[in-house]
């Protein structure tokens, strides 16, 4: 079995580091995307409930839901 030279070992190590960086960035991107999807769907659900509260003239529910919407907007960064 042929042993690898120092240069080859350094190339392999560099490739492994790059692969780890790529995996980290990809996992971070996926996590951000999933978080955004979750917040968007939660926001849409609350907006629908707010519309229903307005239609039903339910002030108490409207105020509670708008507080929830404000909290989601904070988490969303808007």
UniProtKB/TrEMBL annotation:
The lineage of its organism: Bacteria, Bacillati, Bacillota, Bacilli, Bacillales. InterPro entries: IDEAL_dom, Virus_scaffolding_prot_C. This is IDEAL domain-containing protein. Residues 33-69 form the IDEAL domain.
